[in-house]
Write a structure and sequence with these properties.
Order of helices and strands of chain B: HHHEEHEHHEHEHEHEHHH
CATH superfamily of the largest domain in chain A: LarA, C-terminal domain
Radius of gyration of chain B: 26 Å
Number of strands of chain B: 7
Oligomer: heterodimer
Structural class of chain B: alpha/beta
CATH architecture of chain B: 3-Layer(aba) Sandwich
Strand order of the largest sheet of chain B: 1-7-6-2-5-3-4
Distance between the termini of chain A: 26 Å
Largest sheet of chain A: 9 strands, mixed
Number of domains of chain A: 2
Structural class of chain A: alpha/beta
CATH class of the largest domain in chain A: Alpha Beta
Largest sheet of chain B: 7 strands, mixed
Helix content of chain B: 40-55%
CATH class of chain B: Alpha Beta
Helix content of chain A: 25-40%
Number of helices of chain B: 12
Largest interface: A-B, 23 and 17 residues
């Protein structure tokens, strides 16, 4: 029986705590008597017969006819799937998406459906490479559909590839992929890593355009989402649900397939990263020492390569399909079952180790803007109820924050860092002054459409993700980060954790309470 | 040292018949002809029946030694080195569908479940290809069902087959109680099996109907059947070929299958054959097309067209063009020299 999440009160006997530092990690001693560490629940048991579970789900959907009954010969079928940003790290082959899509295609073959298109729902993310598509969908699906032009990636800037379905009562434009909109049935295959994923966000975001996304990917919406993980208190969620209503009324019939995975995140020899430090045996301690010593002497490029080659042993814990909202309700419950940890009260200082990966730098570089987004956009928002850190509190992150950018994947990030952040770090001013210019830049559009670049507006969205935390916090400190890059982000650099605590004392006093989010594996704090 | 008695006898016999100037062979033959028991086998007296000594070859060959640690160590080296290199050079296999075995991969400190791999069979290369393609942990704990009347007829070939391939003799015509008990014992001990349900290599390049042995063993032991399709091996070293024609091959693994409730061996065998047929279609076209045809039961049969004679052979060459054997490597571009 897996153990639930756990909050450890740090005392004198507590061993030092593991902190991620990008492509490395360190052990830090937190002050006894006023610190606590939140550990994620252990991985839930996986479904034994995954293929049988998928077939059962397709035949017994929630609030919908079985998939087979929705299909007919001569129909237009479109299958959309979550892109490379999920799951993290990438999962071992076979990926869940492959297994689900193969089952859907098997059903389509039985019914005699010929007109099938498979679309990577990547919104404004970068296109996936052939290797990445093969990893997500398997060679069989790729080899059968890609050469025929029936497997491709969503292009939000294709002037002939988008269809407007109308507006929400709030005046939000709803625009989605034309092929998806004109299909008799749109099957969406999702992987729910966190509660924010899935539901109407799959289609209303994954298959939409900048025209549509700007209505919820903006500073105001992000500041009103407290947090993204808590659907009832997320403006981002509400906006997507309003768009979903328009999709339901004017769009194609949608059959949503949602899956959840457990928190089995690291394979051998990195299993110790998921373990509680006092349970490390001789093997784990030796592995930790050998790994950190080796990584200290490893060039960063090689270390990135090693870490991005990690394939997580994630396993499927549930699959449900049918009507979007009903399905997502069950999915969210299943995500909570795996990730929720009860935490009593807020803290003055929230510490977090930023790992090598975020949803937007798979096989790429975690640049300073993504570090900010990961810390203040994602980890800060891993709460339900109240933020883990009190208003006016401090966040301390550990990450080297090299001012390195992937020139192919993140071209607009470079200009954002050098031009926009040099001017101001205020998300509202950035939005008003620069967003349109980057979003409509023809060169960025060209790189997004034909290369492997994130859309020109993407670094803005990353910055907006952090806007709620920026407004909430008194200070953000980065331990071990490149001082120039950290200051450019508007944060305070510190050399050691003790220095950081000393700096933080200006804001939160000499004896602050400290909470460390021991992630990954991911968890969501239910703060009472 | 003095010569032995038979040689002295031979010399004496040679002198006696005046064999001067004749070849040594002739002289020896004549000498042996005059040598009697105990230097020759005794003649059986009339009216006496000598009880038959059971053969220790063919189906009776004891292969237990080949599953002991020393033989396994030797085999592991041979398979990882020379055999692998040979198969790579001669057949250059592309291996697909291993992800379909993902659910059967053992966890940490668990033994792998026994599986029965059932490929189509066109060439002696098939065994080497399978042993290269089957992933660990099954590869190092697999026994190969080999025709008792072909691989186990002499001591040397029997020992070589047992050592190199971990082969066990299988009677290809019938599944005897003894061999099925033996296979069950191996499965119970955690061994996986590689069986060729066609019973032998294809005589004409097309497949043959599957025999029910593998289906029966699966039903009896509970070990799932893994359908496997091998494409291209027949064109490299098919039955009747005297020389190897190196080329490319493809090995495709299917989803493991088990008999369903109430399914008899004959029906299960048909399902295994159908699975391999679908894999064959998948290997020669693409997965989606194969699934569409499978839904309509229109996958091209492994056994080829119904008609006989030259048209069947003609169709075979067309069939091979679709597969790996038909693919030619792109000619290297030669740029003109201007100096």
């Amino acid at each position: 029986m897996p153990r639930p999440g756990f909050v450890l009160e740090v005392d004198r006997s507590t061993p030092p705590t593991l902190f991620w530092r990008g492509e490395n990690f360190s052990l830090e001693k937190l002050p006894a008597g006023r610190s606590r560490v939140i550990y994620a629940p252990e991985p839930l048991p996986a479904i034994k017969d995954v293929d049988a579970a998928i077939r059962h789900a397709l035949a017994n959907p929630i609030d919908s006819d079985p998939l087979k009954a929705l299909m007919f010969p001569g129909m237009k079928l479109t299958i959309a799937f979550d892109d490379i940003s999920l799951p993290l790290p990438k999962m071992r082959r076979p990926d869940i998406r492959q297994r689900v899509i193969e089952a859907v295609l098997d059903t389509a073959a039985e019914v005699g459906v010929d007109d099938v298109h498979i679309i990577a729902a990547l919104a404004l993310h970068r296109r996936m490479t052939e290797d990445e598509l093969r990893h997500a969908l398997g060679d069989r699906v790729y080899d059968a559909f890609a050469p025929r032009g029936q497997l491709y990636q969503h292009d939000a800037e294709d002037p002939n590839g988008m269809t407007s379905l109308g507006q929400t009562p709030h005046g939000e434009d709803v625009e989605i992929n034309k092929r998806a909109a004109e299909s008799d049935l749109l099957v969406y295959v999702n992987i729910n890593l966190v509660a924010m994923d899935g539901g109407w966000k799959s289609t209303a975001t994954g298959l939409s355009s900048y025209r549509s996304l700007r209505h919820h990917h903006n500073v105001n919406t992000m500041r009103q989402s407290r947090s993204f993980m808590d659907q009832h208190r997320s403006e981002l969620h509400h906006s997507n649900w309003r768009m979903g209503k328009v999709l339901k009324e004017s769009g194609p019939r949608i059959f949503q397939i949602e899956t959840t995975i457990n928190t089995d995140t690291f394979p051998a020899p990195f299993e110790f990263l998921s373990k509680r430090e006092w349970e490390w045996g001789a093997k784990e301690r030796a592995t930790y020492l050998a790994t950190t010593k080796a990584l200290n002497r490893t060039p960063v490029k090689l270390a990135r390569k090693i870490f991005h080659s990690i394939e997580a042993p994630h396993q499927m814990t549930s699959i449900q399909c049918g009507e979007v909202e009903a399905v997502h309700k069950v999915t969210t419950e299943n995500v909570w079952k795996q990730q929720l940890v009860e935490v009593k009260g807020q803290t003055d200082i929230l510490t977090m180790g930023i790992p090598f990966i975020s949803p937007y730098n798979v096989h790429s570089i975690m640049n300073p803007i993504l570090v900010a987004c990961m810390g203040l956009g994602y980890y800060f928002n891993m709460y339900k109820g109240k933020p883990l850190v009190r208003e006016g509190g401090v966040v301390i992150m550990t990450h080297p924050t090299y001012p390195d950018f992937h020139p192919v994947h993140h071209p607009s990030y470079i200009d954002f860092f050098e031009q926009v952040l040099a001017d101001t770090t205020d998300p509202a001013i950035i939005e008003a002054k620069y967003e349109k210019q980057f979003a409509e830049d023809e060169w960025y559009k060209h790189l997004y459409r034909t290369g492997y670049a994130y859309h020109g507006v993407h670094p803005f969205y990353m910055w907006y993700w952090a806007s709620h935390a920026m407004a909430h916090l008194g200070r953000t400190i980065v331990v071990g980060g490149d001082p120039r890059a950290v200051r450019r982000l508007g944060f305070t650099p510190a050399s050691t954790m003790n220095d950081a605590l000393e700096i933080a004392s200006d804001v939160v006093g000499r004896s602050p309470t400290i909470t460390h989010l021991h992630a990954p594996p991911l968890m969501v704090a239910d703060v009472s | 040292m003095k010569g032995s008695q038979p040689l002295r006898e031979m010399r004496l016999a040679g002198r006696a018949i005046g064999a001067k100037g004749r070849s040594m062979t002739m002289r020896a033959k004549r000498a042996m002809g005059s040598v009697g028991f105990p230097y020759r086998a005794p003649e059986v007296p009339a009216g006496v029946t000598v009880p038959e000594v059971p053969s220790k070859l063919e189906a009776n060959y004891d292969t237990a030694w080949a599953r002991e640690a020393p033989a396994r160590a030797v085999r592991r080296i041979m398979q990882a080195g020379p055999l692998r290199l040979f198969v790579k050079v001669v057949a250059d296999p592309e291996i697909d569908g291993l992800d379909r075995l993902a659910d059967y991969r053992p966890g940490k400190d668990e033994d792998p479940p026994s599986l029965i791999f059932t490929p189509n069979h066109h060439s002696h290369l098939d065994t080497g290809l399978c042993l290269m393609a089957i992933p660990e942990p099954w590869r190092s704990k697999i026994v190969v069902g080999a025709a008792a009347d072909y691989f186990f007829t002499t001591r040397f070939s029997a020992a070589a087959s047992a050592l190199m391939l971990n082969a066990i003799p299988i009677d290809r015509e019938t599944v005897s109680r003894k061999s099925s008990d033996f296979a069950k014992q191996l499965v119970d001990e955690g061994w996986s099996l590689l069986l060729f349900p066609e019973g032998g290599r294809s005589p004409d390049g097309w497949g043959q109907p599957f025999k029910g042995g593998a289906a029966y063993l699966s039903a009896r032991t509970g070990a799932p059947i893994v359908p496997v399709y091998i494409d291209g091996a027949g064109a490299i070293f098919g039955k009747g070929m005297k020389r190897l024609k190196p080329g490319r091959t493809r090995v495709v693994f299917g989803h493991p299958i088990l008999p369903v409730d109430g399914e008899n061996t004959r029906r299960f065998n048909e399902r295994i054959e159908q699975s391999v047929t679908e894999l064959g279609d998948e290997a020669l076209s693409d997965w989606w097309g194969a699934r569409q045809r499978a839904a309509e039961r229109k996958n091209p049969a492994l056994t080829g067209p119904e008609y006989r004679g030259w048209r069947r052979q003609w169709a075979l060459s067309e069939h091979r063009k679709l597969g790996k054997a038909g693919q030619r490597t792109r000619q290297k571009r030669t740029w003109p020299k201007f100096d």
